[in-house]
Amino acid sequence: MVSFRFRSKRWRAAAYLFVVMFTLAIYMKFFPSRVKFDSSTTEWDDLSSSEFNPTVDGSVNHTDLIWQLPAGAPKAVLFIAHGCNHRATDFWDNSSGCPHCIGLPEERLIVLKALRRGYAILVISSLRTCWSLGDEVESVERLIKWWIAEHRLQKLPLLGLGASSGGEFLSYLATSEQIKFRSIAILIAEGVIDTLTTLPVDYPPTIFVHMPKDAVMERSVNGTLKFLRDNLNVPVKEIRCLEFPLTPELLSDRIPGLSRGVSVWLFRQFRKRGFIDDKGFMKNDGRETKWKSFLDDGVSIPAGYRSVVNNHLDHIEEELNLAFAYHEITSLEMDKIFRWFEVHMKSIN
Ligand SMILES: *[C@@H]1O[C@H](CO)[C@@H](O)[C@H](O)[C@H]1NC(C)=O
Ligand SMILES: *[C@@H]1O[C@H](CO)[C@@H](O)[C@H](O)[C@H]1NC(C)=O
Ligand SMILES: *[C@@H]1O[C@H](CO)[C@@H](O)[C@H](O)[C@H]1NC(C)=O
């Protein structure tokens, strides 16, 4: 009798659990959370990846040119143009092969994912803080051409990814007669194509990845999308990146060398100081949030944490900007970008 009652209770509990799970599943299907990013499902368990093995051609015409070939036969060449105040050295982890590299979290994941996808990566630093559409265009054309010939990759499709200033630069470089891009990805930038007086006849298919919280940018991207589609008959696509909440482990999940302890401590400080709301969303852009100041305002900092934070200020700020989703480079949409690239690789060959 006792055992029967026990079993029936267990059965009721199981049935109850089933109903709850079923309801939850239906609910999640019809009301997907606005939060697309779940750090617990990221595949980057091996954060400090041993797959990085860059070659730095640091003295080619006074700019950094850093490259890496994938493990197997490459299927495409991906040229990457960074934003203002950034450099090619942001895209690889610091190693003996690249002692000036600082491996910013989004940049390094873009490279890592692209390598795993079989792309040869070429990153060139701008000559000045931002890219210019002057003599720099010709010099980058020459460098890309030279590098591709040097590695005998002329037969592979050339792809481009540019962020912010690098996106504007790439959108212009894509009109080049010297190098022909098969398709390009413009991140957090509107492109300059609709401002040109002479229009190219064969502009490459273009995917825009932007953050609609920046409404001015959204309007410009809308305009460029329409221009490319209607005036140049170019295939276009847009990916809209939305904000997501910080979690206590977000920073340690995405920044190699930043421990879980530091991550959880920072998260608590952010909450205590009102930088994030009670759901974990950033209230402002990371650049606008005076989050570094509490390191100096007499707060008691666990031993060793200060130096870890100080060594990762740019890394942390980048993730805060990304979570706020106003203006930051992102690696979160790379799978969609690769699919876009690959659809347009096939369609021409
Ligand atoms: C890279 O690592 C080396 C050796 O560990 C170190 O001396 C150097 O300061 C690091 N560079 C950067 C930019 O972090
Ligand atoms: C480097 O610059 C020189 C002088 O401007 C030019 O002749 C040469 O082609 C350039 N090399 C590359 C690889 O772009
Ligand atoms: C941009 O276009 C989308 C639809 O394609 C529209 O919903 C949105 O309001 C537009 N944004 C701006 C700022 O014009």
From TrEMBL:
Keyword annotations: Membrane, Transmembrane, Transmembrane helix
Gene3D superfamilies for the chain: alpha/beta hydrolase
Keyword Membrane: yes
Residue intervals passing through the bilayer: 12-31
InterPro entries: AB_hydrolase_fold
Protein name: Uncharacterized protein
Protein species of origin: Zostera marina
